[in-house]
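Two entries, shown back to back:
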Amino acid sequence: MMNSIGYISTVEAVRRLASDISDHEIGGPAEPARLVWRKKESAIALLLAAFADGSLTTWVRSASGLVPLVGVDWQAAALWREIIIGGIVCATIGDHLGPFDGQPVLLDAPAFKSWLEHRPRPKPSDPQNDSCQAWLETQMRASPKSRPKARIEFSREAAQKFGVSARHFKNVIWPNALTNTGARWNTSGPVKKSIRSASSNS
């Protein structure tokens, strides 16, 4: 559903991405209801990763116009899942997103279309990739609420242990592990800049 000319909601982004995800990407076929759920969860994780690393920019309305939600805003958002699946800002008491609570979250439609068309697709099953996936999920399950080190460090370790490329690790193994484990590793870490500073400069 279009929220404004040239923009789509995160709800629509989840729907489009989930329909674009193949059975292979989520580990093969399953019963229909389970398949739909897994594709939606994978879409949510992929979008969060893209928002957090700046691959996709989201926007909210303010008195001065549209204001970007940058990567650190998503990393700090306590209710990031509710925001993505509901399409509006949900803020807790004291949350830096508080001034935008209840505002629709928008994506530039052409930018999302381009990202969707060019997003990396997973390679066919490979023992090294499978081993790396299992290893990372074990790490996440051991510390689901707190990432012990930066993603880039896990990427380097994955390259050393399994020969997995940094691109494949970032775009396939990492988001799949988030989906499979429910770990909140994309939202851990210090906040260096918030949307308040972005809105004050607009």
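entry 2 starts here
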Amino acid sequence: MKFGLIVPSSNTTMEAELWKMASGWATIHTARMRLRKITIEELEEMEKEMLEQALCLADAKVRVIGYGCTSGSLFKGKDHGQELEQRITEKTGIPAVATAQAVIEALRELQIQKICVATPYVREINDLERRFLEQNEINVLQMKGMNLIDNREIGSKDSNVTYELAKQAYIPGAQGIFISCTNLRTIEIIDRLEKELGVTVISSNTATFWAMLMKAGAQKKLEGFGKLLF
């Protein structure tokens, strides 16, 4: 099974994490859009490259195309992710998944309405993310950011940094934790967080891959990456 993935040019994490989750039964084929800093201006410019890159992936006859950027699929508001999916599918004829919309669908699947959010972003992007989640009827109890704007710096962070950030973001009463950003390393620490904190943990990458599996009709249980995928 072949999955297509479009990521920001500076993303060094998502492709590798999806390959690990695919674990020999599927392949990941990746295209890139230029982005170095997570700002509204660069996210807007990056989106302009989306359809050209989607067409390139369509040439490889992938089953699903993922738009692998969290902030890039939510900064325009509630329906941003759905609109990106629709545009990709209309252009290519291939089902599409946008990360931010995948997160909403994953939280609904798990019946989680109250969450804590861990992000690497600056306040401006965090505020847009909170707005997006709450517009989609997800109650954000607490959000912790790292105040990073350079996407290459985000990708350089060890998963232990993500682990500590998620623990700082969590407060009792939350039904789950969402670790945001496809360039943050997460899949090594999700099981550990779920066992230690007793709540479900999803990340941008696990939610995106889960939604891609759903769109592809793939009945796969993946052990070791959290409750969502197993």
